Amino acid sequence: MSDLIDGYLNMELLRFTTAGSVDDGKSTLIGRLLYDSKAIFEDQMEAIERASERAGAEEVNLALLTDGLRAEREQGITIDVAYRYFATPKRKFIIADTPGHVQYTRNMVTGASTANVAVILVDARHGVLEQTIRHSYIASLLQIPHLIVTVNKMDLVGYDEEVFEDIKAQFRKLAGKLEIKDVRFVPISAKYGDNVVDRSKNMPWYEGPTLLYLLETIHIGSDWNHTIMRFPVQYVIRPQSDRYHDFRGYAGRIASGVFKPGDKVQVLPSGLSTRVKTIEMMEQQLDKAFAPMSVLITLEDDLDISRGDMIVGENKSPQSGDEVEIMLCWLSETPLRLGGKYYLKHTTNDLRCLVTDVEYKIDINTLDKMYDDKSLGLNEIAKVRLKTTKPLFYDSYRTNRITGSLILIDEATNNTVGAGMIV
Fold first, then answer.
1. Is there a domain that residue 300 lies in?
2. Domain count for the chain
3. Alpha carbons 293 and 393: distance in angstroms, whole number
4. Which residues 6+ apart lie within 8 Å of 222 measured at CB?
5. What is the pLDDT of residue 364?
C-alpha cells in the first residue's frame, strides 16, 4: 500500500490544451505527438488508415485520431473537446484538443480550465490572427501558467527563420498586454513531424527544444498554490460501526496548501479553531498531504461540520461575502437574465444567487470592453456581479484556481450555463 501512495505522490501528470485558428493543424499536431511517441495501438492506426482512404486522402490523416465525431470528420473541423491520454517514460499527459471556431469558445473554456499548459498554434503563413488573440486571452483569463506558441506549417514557408522571428515578435506584443509570463516558441511542421517529437533537419537554425521535450520538462510543481491551506469538505465519514463507533472524518480534495497532523486550522463558516489529528489515504496515515491529493482528515475536536464547509489555515482565511465580481463565460444558448436567479456551485458548496449587474462585456477578438451592452449570450465573456443567498468563502482566481472558480446552473433545466472566475 505504501508503494501505491508513493507512486501517487511521485506521479507527475501534465494537462495541456491545444488552441488556435481554424485549420492551424491542432488535431494533426496531437496525432503526430501520439504517433511519433509510439502511443497509438495498431488497431487505432489501421482504423485511421481506412478512414483516410475513404476520404480520398493521399496519405494517412493523423487528425482523425482526435476528430472522433462523424460531423467533425465530414467537415474537417474539431467541434467537441477531445481528450486523449498518453505517457512517456518522463511524464503522463492528458490532452484536451479544443475547437478553433468562435462559436465553440465554450468548448475551449471547458477543455482549458484544468490545463497546466496551453499550446497555441499559429499558421506560419498567416501569423497572429484575431482567433489567436481570442485563444490567448482565454488562456490568460483561465490563468494557465505556461504557454507554448507553436508556429506550424513551417514547411509551407520554406522553413524560413525570418517568418518565425516575425511571429515571435507579434506574439510578444500581445503577451505583454495579457500579462502572460511564461511563453515559449517552437517552429514546427505537424504534418511531417519537424520539431514535434524529433528535431528537424530542415531548421538547423533553431537550437531550442522540441515540443515533446518542453512538455516533458516544463516545471509544473509550483502551479499549485502550496502556501494557503484550503480543504473543501466533500463528505463526512461516520461509519457508526462497532470498530469505528465514534469515528468522524472529513473526505475531500485539497484545493491548495500543505496539511500536516498537529496543524492549527479553522472551520468555516463557524469560525471555530481546532487542530488536524490525522490525515489518511487508502487506510494509511500520512505525515503530510498537499494539493491536489484526495484524503481523509480527522480533527482533534468534535465539531459540527458538513458538506460545503471549508477547513483552512488559521492565519490565512479566504475572503467572505454575499457579493462577488466574476469574469463569466456564458455556456448556454439561452441568454443570461439580468436579475435572474441561478444555482451556484463553488467547490463543494451549493447555494443560490442573483445576477445584479453586467459591468462590461469583452470583445474577445479585439479585447475591447463594451460597457453599454448588458446582454450576454452563448460564448460571450463579461464581468458580472452576483449576490448570493449566504456568504461565500473564496479566493481570487489569480490566487487559487479551485476556490476562485464557480459555475452557474439553470434552476429550471439543471443545465450548466456559466463558468466564472472570481476577480
1. yes
2. 3
3. 21
4. none
5. 76
